[in-house]
C-alpha cells in the first residue's frame, strides 16, 4: 500500500510540473477501449458497464486493426444508449487520426482522443 501511495504522490508532482496541457472534455457519453494481441475491452463510463473479449487464436492483424475492432464492438454493444456528443478514448494514435478525419469529412463532432 505504501508503494501505491508513493506512486500517486510522484504522479501528482509530475503532472503539476509536466509540460503538458490537460483539457476538460464535455460530452454526453464517454467510451474507453483498449486492445492487445490477446484481447479487447471497453468501458462505458456513463453506463458503468464494461466488456472484454479474448482472442482465441493468434491474430495476424496489426494492432491498429484490433484497436479499431475494439471500438466497433463497443459501439455495437452500447449504440442504443448513446446520444449527443460521444467521446471515445483510444490509446492508438493512428486509429484516432483515421476516425477523426472521417468524422470531420461527414460533419460529425469528435473528441480530441477520438
List the helices and strands and how they pair.
Elements: H1 2-17, E1 29-35, E2 39-44, E3 49-54, H2 63-78, E4 86-89, H3 93-105
Parallel strand pairs: 1-4
Antiparallel strand pairs: 1-2, 2-3
Summed up:
The protein has 3 helices and 4 strands; from the N terminus they run αβββαβα. The protein is an alpha+beta fold and 114 residues long.
Descriptive overview:
The chain is α+β, with helices and mostly antiparallel strands and 114 residues long. The chain has one domain. 39% of the residues lie in helices and 20% in strands. It is built from three helices and four strands; from the N terminus they run H-E-E-E-H-E-H. It has helices at residues 2-17, 63-78, 93-105, and strands at 29-35, 39-44, 49-54, 86-89. It has a four-stranded mixed beta sheet with strand order 3-2-1-4, with helices on one face. A hairpin with a 4-residue loop joins strand 2 (39-44) and strand 3 (49-54). The protein is globular, with a radius of gyration of 16 Å. It starts with a helix and ends in a 9-residue tail after the last helix. Residues 107-114 have low confidence and may be disordered.
Give keywords.
114 residues, alpha+beta, four-stranded mixed beta sheet, globular, disordered C terminus
> What structural class do you assign from the helix and strand content?
alpha+beta
Oligomer description? single chain
Count of helical regions: 3
Beta strand %: 15-25%
Amino acid at each position: 500500500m505504501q508503494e501505491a501511495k508513493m506512486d500517486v504522490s510522484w504522479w501528482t508532482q509530475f503532472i503539476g510540473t509536466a509540460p503538458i496541457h490537460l483539457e476538460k472534455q464535455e460530452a454526453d457519453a464517454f467510451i474507453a477501449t483498449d486492445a492487445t494481441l490477446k484481447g479487447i475491452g471497453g468501458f462505458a463510463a456513463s453506463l458503468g458497464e464494461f466488456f472484454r473479449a479474448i482472442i482465441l487464436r493468434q491474430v495476424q492483424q496489426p494492432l491498429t486493426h484490433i484497436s479499431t475492432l475494439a471500438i466497433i464492438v463497443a459501439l455495437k454493444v452500447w449504440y442504443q444508449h448513446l446520444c449527443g456528443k460521444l467521446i471515445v478514448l483510444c490509446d492508438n494514435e493512428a486509429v484516432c487520426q483515421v476516425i477523426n478525419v472521417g468524422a470531420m469529412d461527414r460533419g460529425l463532432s469528435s473528441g480530441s482522443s477520438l
